[in-house]
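Data availability (excerpt). The following record was deposited with the supplementary files.
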Amino acid sequence: MELSLEERILEIVKEKTKTEGGVIQSLLWGMLGVDNREGTKAVLSLVRKGLIKREPIIYKGRRTYKLVYNPTIIGKVSIKVSLNPVMNIPCFTCKELYRCGVGGYFNPQKCVLLSNFVRSLSLKERAS
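Predicted structure:
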C-alpha cells in the first residue's frame, strides 16, 4: 500500500530526529522527489496537527526550517451528551411519530401537542 506524502514526510522526520536531531526542510524535497510547493503544504498540515515542529535556521546562507518530530501523547477523549432536553419534545413519545410528516394526515404544522409544547417554551422564556 502506497503511503501518502504526509505519512512519508512524517516517517522521514521521525527517523532523522532520532539519528540527527531533525531534517532540513529544503533537503527533504530531494529525498522525496517532490517540489517545494507540494511538500510545504504537507509539512504545514503536519505542523497544524502538532506532529512536527518547524524551527527556523540558516543553511548554506539561506533561510529554511529544521523539521523535528513532536511526539504527542494521545489521550482518551470522553464527551458527555445529555438527551434530557430533547426527550421533553412530545414527538418522541407520540405513537404517530413514524407516520407524521408535512402534508400528511399527521402533520407537525397542525399538531396540538407540538404547538402546546412550543407555546410553553415561549412562556417560560418570557418569564425568565
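Summary of structural features: Residues 57 and 65 are 5 Å apart (CA to CA).
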